[in-house]
């Protein structure tokens, strides 16, 4: 292995003024968490970049994990040499040779951040270019579309060389924007909504409404698996599983069929908000997209949202289903989401829910029954699982 470290560039982060220290510290912690099983990696965090010293760890595995970490604009595996032109020539040749196959073209892209170094970038380009042309048979220069681009950067700490540039996940480090509760169903949309908020630095705790025996253990396992997928973008996730059967039954006994959907959503939001308060969250997140289904019209949202003044973040609101599906594929949740197991809403969905429910109507219907104790009980009986990459569910194993 030639590369001995990975250079991480922050991008957007470095423009965040006074907050930068907080961001960099958080990013460092998130990377450390995600790399905890990858050997003795050391992290050196600076103002505008970070280095992971590999100490023999596999770059390929680290590359895969790093590409999911929010707050990284790009990264490159690098070798470092002393600021001595002979050493730089040697390292440059080794790197280009390692990446060369017959017929390949190359280009040197040198940058001198440390102006005290006597060779400027133009001269560095030509010295290194000549050295490579002389020592690799058949290699040619192509400055527009090279097969191999050797990045050389002269900095105070030394000269850094790399033939690889990997686009990072972008966004902000998970956790710097505070915590929100994600209403996580087993569907396609809500995991994507969670991912998008995580990308903006939000720490997510998931809340799932579960209605046994109408919904099976498998439906629950599906949600656990979805939460597990999301952990690769921000580390461990708390998953709150709310027993929702009784409330759903009471709604059905109390509220006319075409209003049960609206009412169900109102209680979901109410309960999620209680769980938020208990856990120090600042907002709620849903996977709603305008006009997608009956409960996602603006009239519905007005009637549903009325139960709380807590911000309800809906990152998918203006997205098309196909765009959402594309993201779900990219983040690996799609194939879990499309598994058939019913969730609590599908089962209780009336044949024709109101697409334009009226707030006064739903309030009127709900006034016939005291739901308060049921809400309290659901919150009290909520089971919380700590989902990490290694999480395995006991109940699910028992099914086989
Ligand atoms: P999804 O694909 O996320 O299930 P959907 O298109 O099926 O969304 P709805 O069923 O109307 O839409 O749900 C809207 C949102 O309400 C979901 O995105 C999710 O945030 C929340 N939600 C629905 N059912 C549940 C549930 N059982 N537990 C937690 N949240 C839920
Ligand atoms: Mg759904």
From TrEMBL:
Pathways per UniProt: Cofactor biosynthesis; thiamine diphosphate biosynthesis
Ranges of residues in domain THUMP: 60-165
Residues reported to bind ATP: 183-184, 208-209, 265, 287, 296
EC number: 2.8.1.4
GO cellular component: cytosol
GO MF: ATP binding; CCA tRNA nucleotidyltransferase activity; tRNA binding; tRNA-uracil-4 sulfurtransferase activity
A biological process from GO: thiazole biosynthetic process
Keywords, ordered alphabetically: ATP-binding, Cytoplasm, Nucleotide-binding, RNA-binding, Thiamine biosynthesis, Transferase, tRNA-binding
Pfam family, one: ThiI
Protein's cellular compartments: Cytoplasm
Catalytic reaction annotation: [ThiI sulfur-carrier protein]-S-sulfanyl-L-cysteine + a uridine in tRNA + 2 reduced [2Fe-2S]-[ferredoxin] + ATP + H(+) = [ThiI sulfur-carrier protein]-L-cysteine + a 4-thiouridine in tRNA + 2 oxidized [2Fe-2S]-[ferredoxin] + AMP + diphosphate; [ThiS sulfur-carrier protein]-C-terminal Gly-Gly-AMP + S-sulfanyl-L-cysteinyl-[cysteine desulfurase] + AH2 = [ThiS sulfur-carrier protein]-C-terminal-Gly-aminoethanethioate + L-cysteinyl-[cysteine desulfurase] + A + AMP + 2 H(+)
PANTHER family (alphabetical): TRNA SULFURTRANSFERASE
Function statement: Catalyzes the ATP-dependent transfer of a sulfur to tRNA to produce 4-thiouridine in position 8 of tRNAs, which functions as a near-UV photosensor. Also catalyzes the transfer of sulfur to the sulfur carrier protein ThiS, forming ThiS-thiocarboxylate. This is a step in the synthesis of thiazole, in the thiamine biosynthesis pathway. The sulfur is donated as persulfide by IscS.
Family membership: Belongs to the ThiI family.
Name assigned to this protein: Probable tRNA sulfurtransferase
The organism of origin for this protein: Bacillus smithii 7_3_47FAA
The gene coding this protein: thiI
């Amino acid at each position: 292995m030639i590369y001995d470290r990975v250079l991480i560039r922050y991008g957007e982060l470095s423009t965040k003024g006074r907050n930068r220290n907080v961001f960099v510290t958080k990013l460092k912690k998130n990377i450390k968490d995600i790399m905890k099983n990858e050997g003795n990696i050391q992290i050196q965090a600076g103002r505008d970049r970070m280095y992971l010293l590999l100490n023999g760890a596999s770059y390929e595995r680290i590359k895969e994990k790093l590409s999911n970490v929010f707050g990284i604009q790009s990264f490159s595996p690098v070798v470092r040499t002393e600021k001595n032109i002979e050493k730089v020539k040697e390292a440059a040749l080794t790197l280009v040779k390692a990446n060369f196959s017959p017929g390949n073209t190359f280009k040197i892209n040198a940058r001198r951040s440390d102006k005290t170094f006597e060779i400027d970038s133009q001269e560095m380009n030509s010295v290194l270019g000549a050295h490579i042309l002389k020592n690799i048979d058949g290699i040619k220069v192509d400055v527009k579309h090279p097969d191999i681009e050797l990045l050389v950067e002269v900095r105070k700490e030394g000269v850094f060389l790399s033939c690889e540039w990997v686009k990072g996940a972008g966004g902000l480090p998970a956790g710097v924007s505070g915590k929100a509760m994600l209403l996580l169903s087993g569907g396609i949309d809500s995991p994507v909504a969670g991912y998008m908020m995580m990308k903006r630095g939000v720490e997510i705790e998931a809340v799932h409404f579960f209605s046994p025996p109408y919904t099976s253990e498998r439906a629950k396992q599906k949600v656990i698996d979805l939460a597990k997928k999301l952990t690769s973008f921000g580390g461990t996730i708390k998953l709150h599983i709310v027993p929702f059967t009784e409330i759903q039954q009471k709604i059905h006994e109390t509220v006319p069929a075409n209003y049960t959907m609206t009412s169900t959503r109102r209680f979901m939001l109410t309960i999620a908000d209680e769980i938020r308060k208990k856990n120090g969250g600042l907002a709620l997140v849903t996977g709603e997209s305008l006009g997608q289904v009956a409960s996602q019209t603006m009239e519905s949202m007005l009637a549903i949202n009325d139960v709380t003044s807590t911000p309800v973040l809906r990152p998918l609101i203006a997205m098309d289903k196909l765009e959402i599906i594309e993201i779900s594929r990219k983040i690996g949740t799609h194939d879990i989401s499309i598994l058939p197991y019913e969730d609590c809403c599908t089962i209780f969905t009336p044949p024709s829910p109101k697409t334009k429910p009226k707030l006064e109507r739903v309030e009127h219907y709900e006034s016939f029954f005291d739901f308060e104790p049921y809400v309290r009980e659901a919150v009290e009986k909520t089971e919380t699982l700590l989902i990490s990459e290694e999480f395995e569910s006991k109940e699910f194993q028992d099914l086989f």
